[in-house]
Amino acid sequence: MRVERWARKRQGTDTLPLKLLGRRLYILPTRAGIAFGALAFVMLIAGLNYSNSLALVLTFMVGGFMLVGMHECQRTLQGLELVQAQAGDCHAGDVGLVQLRFVNEATLPRRALAARTPGLADSGFDLDRHGAASIQVKFHGARRGRHRLERIELSTTAPFGLFRCWTWLYLPVEVLVYPRIAGSRALPAPGAGRLAQQPSVAAPGEDEWAGLRAYQPGDSPRSIAWKSWARGTPLQVAQYSGSGGSDYLFSFRGLESLDLEARLSQLSAWISECGRLDAACGLALPGADVPLGRGAAHRAVLLRALAVYGEAPT
Predict the structure, then answer these.
(1) Is the pLDDT of residue 292 over 80?
(2) Structural domain boundaries enclosing 81
(3) 161-170 confidence digits (pLDDT tens)
């Protein structure tokens, strides 16, 4: 929209911490406010037509009520401070979350606040006086890659719902969008080389038990030897040998018939399946060589490598 482009050019890119000042706040009546104003105008015409002093007094009181509501609506946003903004990763086509933290240094509470990105539902919240609040706002991960977060709209209809005051936040927040999870998740798969028949982590009962090893961050809680830990030993996980915990090194081998995005989506699906099977996996792609590893943190490294694959280094 032309108004939004004008506001972006006028405001520029915001920096944190960000304190909202009056020059960047916009306010308009809501539908209820328009109806209320029309009613006050009819009362004014009727009072003047019939020279009814009581009707005129009531009209002026209603007008004063609206003016106070407009002032308080803007005051709800003015001086509010945004101190933190951090976005989580998501897959293309999914909805991600950005966490915002607001601080209210005023002596009065701020009510009926809402934040949203274009096309998604509001995240409503309130702030007590001298209080702080962290909220999560949804954003749409449209396509794979590294992107700057779209504008966030912060608004309020306090105190009476007759006016809506809002501002647009253009934050320096970068989001990483993984490839879409698409294609077959079946393992073994084309491009997945089974590297070892060595013992690896798997669910008890699925394979033959092979021993214990030290716990590593990201290991599945269901594979932890809780009985040993209860006896005072350090955290250890059970190792099982067999197909359930095979190691997979993913590449484009066997996917030559697909375009780049389809290949990356297929690899994303296989990495997700490795998480379900608790199998070790890695990448062997041109310019993206990630060694074998296991756990949620390692799979995030793999997905981030897929997300920026083919982009120029930053």
Answers:
(1) yes
(2) 2-176
(3) 999 999 999 9
pTM of the model: 0.76
- Residue 294 near residue 248, CB atoms below 8 Å: no
Q: Give the whole-number percent of the chain exceeding pLDDT 90.
A: 56
Q: Is residue 214 part of a domain?
A: yes
Q: Is 88 helix (H, G, I), strand (E, B) or coil?
A: coil
pLDDT score for 240: 55
Extended strands (E) in the chain: 18-19, 26-29, 81-87, 90-91, 95-103, 110-116, 123-127, 132-140, 145-148, 152-156, 163-169, 174-178, 192-194, 208-214, 236-241, 248-250, 281-285, 288-293
What Rg do the C-alpha atoms of the chain give, in angstroms? 29
What's the CA gap between 150 and 5, in Å, rounded?
13
Asked if residue 50 and residue 157 are part of one domain, the reply reads yes
Q: CA-CA distance, 212 to 238, in Å (whole number)?
A: 5
Rounded distance, CA 221 to CA 211, Å?
16
Distance CA 24, CA 154 (A): 11
